[in-house]
Amino acid sequence: MSNYVQKPSKAWTMFTYAQFGIAAVMMAGGIFFLEASFSAKGFYAMAALMLVSSTAGITKSVRDAEEGTRLYNKIEDARTERLLAEASGTDAA
User: Fold this and answer.
1) Which residues lie below 8 Å from residue 36, measured CB to CB, with a gap of 6+?
2) Number of domains within the chain
3) How far apart are CA 2 and CA 45, in angstroms?
4) Residues with Cβ < 8 Å from 52, sequence gap 6 or more?
5) pLDDT of res. 93
6) Residue 5 domain flag
7) Chain-centre distance for alpha carbon 9
């Protein structure tokens, strides 16, 4: 029992990298040209870096949890198939 897992295309991957790059440049430019003190600009820059870092962490955690569930479901499916094969009297491969 194998399920097809759709992977993102190279075009989509490049689009997401470009989107991130453009957003980072726009944010950096906005902070740089902000009419505020150097300490305020530093605060905004640190907050932006922390936001990007925490977003990557959340994304990884959600993906890891989903993949863990997928593995758990595969193990449960294999156990169920073995139990059904034993109950029907056929050999489980």
Assistant:
1) 44
2) 1
3) 46
4) 24
5) 54
6) no
7) 16
